[in-house]
Amino acid sequence: MLEKYDTIGVHYNSTRKADPYLFTKLQAFLNPLSDKTYLDIGCGTGNYTSAFAKKGYQFIGIDPSGEMLKKAKCQNNSVNWKIGKAEKTDLPTESIDGIIASLTLHHWQDLNKSFSELGRVLKPNGKMVLFTATSEQMKGYWLNHYFPKMLEDSITQMPSYKNIEANLKTNGLYIDITEKYTIQPDLQDLFLYSGKHKPSLYLDPKVRYGISSFSSLANAKEVTHGLHILKKDILSGKINDVITKYENTAGDYLFMVIKKTY
What we know:
Layout: H1 4-8, H2 20-30, E1 37-41, H3 47-54, E2 58-63, H4 66-75, E3 80-83, E4 96-102, H5 111-121, E5 122-132, H6 135-138, H7 143-146, H8 148-157, H9 161-170, E6 173-181, H10 205-209, H11 212-217, H12 220-236, H13 239-245, E7 253-260
Parallel strand pairs: 1-2, 1-4, 2-3, 4-5
Antiparallel strand pairs: 5-7, 6-7
């Protein structure tokens, strides 16, 4: 079956770039060393993988999409790019010193198998840094107002915190640190809720094309209607009332640092 990102990947890098702040957080949580080997699972076009490689760190980038990896190879030849999935990396046992997984968890077909496999390749003192959104956080996105079915599908696809925690425990892993992330106005990586403070971003088809929820899950009729209402609300200022209604303290995304129990 053609990977969904084989289609999205064609123009992906026009709107999806390594955000400096997010990279700094990933680097701080991972705390990599130049003589160790790290894995970016679900690396996509390798924007964050390449950012680490440019700092002198040794990385393997794994993704199921050949189109994405083609883009990744074009921007950096020093990374070992491999076709694979979280459920099956084909890497040796305990060969990886650390793992990053950025906005990929919801694409894993089997959470239990994925954590089992990643736990297998991770060295005993290694750590895994996840950047994701929980289903609980996504219920607080004002996008729910304009695209309810699209968000419902996306939320269903996104594992809950409790589900993540339970599957980690089953595989001898545990959550050591969590930190909420709230969308910043200068965000450069235009993923799903990147337009939180800039609603007009969603009116740009290039931005929508780089977001899997719009590209793969969305009902075309609902999206067309939702965009029409959103544009009217932006012009009238009503969007501000909608945004205020959805204000919350849950954070928009979440960093999770995972360690082995042994």
